[in-house]
Amino acid sequence: GQEKPPRASPAGPFGTPLQALPLSESVEGVPRFLVQICEALRCHLHTEGLFRKSGSVTRIKALKAQLEAGESCLDSAAPCDLAALLKQFLRHLPEPLIPAELQEPLCRAQQHPAEGERGPLTLLLSCLLPRPSARALRYFCTFLRDVAARCQENKMDAANLAVIFAPNLFPSCLLNDAPGAERRLLLQAG
């Protein structure tokens, strides 16, 4: 077969390190793809089960191929396909959005016996995030807050969204069938 010429940048946003992704022109310091996919999803915030219902595997593969070829295809995609792509993007980051070394301390902060201390502890730990992660995470959490604000329609309140996104944001603490897995998921969601 023909060999492809080497490319200056990796193909598409999937599996590319956060700091190597092209940045958005509209949101300072946030990867363009993250902004584009969240903006495309904003038109569908009313969709019931957004992020919970799985999209079409075939359509998602096609969308991914189009994105990797540099085509813009997000605006015409089905909401559940976009939601699945966003989760894949987060899951395939070589370094998770929440770096591995902060995942355990963040889970521990949720176990603090004084409930009033959990928020401040989490906030302090978030100051240790690398700047690219912090900016992307802040943008993403603001987007999720907007999704949750429409929970009367989409049935996706903050707790539902947290349970869905915890495995994508905390991949180093992979959940297995161990008895502690459900408890770990709840801590990550917290």
Automatic annotation (TrEMBL):
Rho-GAP domain boundaries: 21-190
InterPro entries: ARHGAP11A/B, Rho_GTPase_activation_prot, RhoGAP_dom
GO MF terms, alphabetically ordered: GTPase activator activity
GO biological-process terms attached to the record: signal transduction
One protein family per Pfam: RhoGAP
Domain of life: Eukaryota
Name this polypeptide is given: Rho GTPase activating protein 11B
The organism of origin for this protein: Chelydra serpentina
